[in-house]
Amino acid sequence: MSILIEGKSGTRHLLMGNEAIARGALEAGVHVAAGYPGTPSSEIIESLAKVCGPRNLYVEWSVNEKVAMEVAAAASFAGLRSLCVMKQNGVNVASDFLLHLAGSGTRAGMVIVPCDDPGALSSANEGESRHFARLVEIPLLEPGDFQQAKDMIKWAFALSEQIRNPVMVRSVTRLSHASGNVVFGDLPAVDAEAYFKHDGPALDPLQGVMLSYPVALKHRGQQEKLQQAVSLFEQSPFNTYEGPENPELLVITSSACCLYSTEAIHLLGLEERVGLLKLTTTWPLPPQLMENYLARTDKILVVEEVIRFLENEVKVLAAELAPRIGIKTFFGKKDGLLPTVGELNPDLVAGALARIFKMDYEPVAATYAAQAAEMAAKAPGRDLTFCPGCPHRASFWTIHNVLEMDNRQGFVCGDIGCYSLAMLPSGFSTLKTLHAMGSGAGLASGFGKLKAFGMDQPAVAVSGDSTFFHAVLPALVNAVHQQSDITLIVLDNSGTAMTGFQPHPGRPVDAAGNPAPQIDIASVCEAIGARVRTCDPFDLERTERTLLEMLADTPGVKVLVLKQICALSPEKKAKKMFEMRLDESICLGENCGCNRLCTRIFKCPGLNWDAAAGVARIDEVICAGCGVCASICPAGAISKKEVA
């Protein structure tokens, strides 16, 4: 049983931020939770899925973020509190429905939790979700520590029900994936009954139809709801102030930057000179609260991640309040005191404070920094690469070689997943475009219609199996309908591998591990109208022959499903297909015509070059036993024996 429901009210537990968010939803009486896996958000749904039985909770990994939001909204319309979870990129996917939902409003509390990734630690970008709250006119909350991550979720549900609209609670990587002590509250009863009332007056938000009203009505209603939220924000117990009554400098901050700012002030011993306003209700800003603190000083530093969102909002409000509070001097990202890209940390904030107060501050001794740089220069390079036994390495080996043999300057359009590494030498630099999930197929669909303009290059797209269901299907339908000449290669490794092997519609289980209908990718593609083949990417010879045939085939849409489970998946981890052996008497190393093809080009981490002996070696510890290296060794020095 999970500590999330075992822990009693009043007890203190060490939780990851995402677990704290999940516990907060449970304490709020959530009954439906939906999301799409994406780091750093995934553990929220995973944590709730573990307790869905005893808590009478429905949890699902939806096919994409828009559908997840629609599932959560349906629960709200039917009187059940619901949670919708995604990473920052997912808000883009869900934004079409979100714009309408903010107009129609909700019934039972509905909380949207996007987890942003400052520094793009596990993302293709560090885009922000905060702008969507302002765009669609819904309240934005940002917890500043782990206790708030739990408590504010419960408060957000109550706020949502008071204003009858969704509420956004933004987390960031350093809050979602760090851990801290959290004091538990009460868990409510699990009983709930869903019923969608829809036969009342048309404009009755609780008993009528649910629709995004015409512009005038919608906008007026949304702005009235926001004013309700602002009134509640004025009295929010989560906005806190620390420091002197009239500080020399006021630091205004939010989210994980609350922790950085607290530490930075302490590092410099500025507790008696600097005031720290930790804001959790960051849009719309509560004007009376802000006036109270802005009036106490003439200098303000705004600390936030990533770009100037809070800083701009504070400046606009300060300009409106200027007749009463006077003209202020602002510091932050606009003047370059803090960076506008990447994560912040206590040293960066302390450096900004030191420059404002003209103090000497050296986060790292110069001698230590020089010594560290010298040691780092001696460390061997470690390229980003696919894992040992990764089927994607074999797939891109074949794709790259086939395009070379085809000799028409064909190219591959990719998208987001483990296979994005194929942009790099580890994937033989095979990908030539890399954008959003599903964009590889969409771009290829466009390229495939350019023969009328003399383009004869084969257009190939790759996608993962989870991405196929998430965003490739519309592009594939478009390509078939428009008779585009493309080859789509689905890299089916049997799970959402990049974010933790969460199930998707192509798997036979749901989020809670219960049996679920498995949707066959090849059958779906055939039903749409594509010509489909399936291969094991570890079978290099057959895969190469099949792909060559498909590229030379008649015009239209072809789909090649390369099906091989991820080497690190729970089903396969530590299980080898083959025992691998390398005969040193046959390996010629640099004297072979291949010039160390296995370790210089193929570069599986399970293969090492022994310079002293002049031979390649197999690392028995990390070799996954996929057998592919035996197929690529031209000298036949590597052999494989099937594991019984």
Verbal overview:
The protein has 644 residues and is an alpha/beta fold. It has 4 domains: 3-234, 3-Layer(aba) Sandwich (Rossmann fold), CATH 3.40.50; 240-356, Rossmann fold (3-Layer(aba) Sandwich); 391-563, Thiamin diphosphate (ThDP)-binding fold, Pyr/PP domains (Rossmann fold, 3-Layer(aba) Sandwich), CATH 3.40.50; 578-642, Alpha-Beta Plaits. Helices cover 36% and strands 18% of the residues. The strands form 6 sheets. Strands 2, 3, 4, 5, 6, 7, 8 and 13 form an 8-stranded mixed sheet that branches. A 6-stranded parallel sheet has the order 17-16-18-19-21-20, with helices on both faces. Helix 11 (287-294) crosses helix 12 (310-325) and helix 15 crosses helix 19 (540-552). 47% of the residues are buried. The model has no long low-confidence stretch (mean pLDDT 92).
C-alpha end-to-end distance: 36 Å
Largest sheet: 8 strands, mixed
* Overall form: globular
Tally of individual helices: 21
Unreliable segments of 5+ consecutive residues: none
CATH topology of the largest domain: Rossmann fold
Count of individual beta strands = 25
| Radius of gyration computed on alpha carbons | 28 Å
Helix content: 25-40%
Tell me the domain tally. Answer: 4
Average the pLDDT over all residues and give the rounded result: 92
Q: β content, as a range?
A: 15-25%
Task: Label the CATH architecture of the largest domain.
Answer: 3-Layer(aba) Sandwich
Q: Specify the CATH class of the largest domain.
A: Alpha Beta
Class from secondary-structure proportions:
alpha/beta
CATH superfamily of the largest domain: Thiamin diphosphate (ThDP)-binding fold, Pyr/PP domains
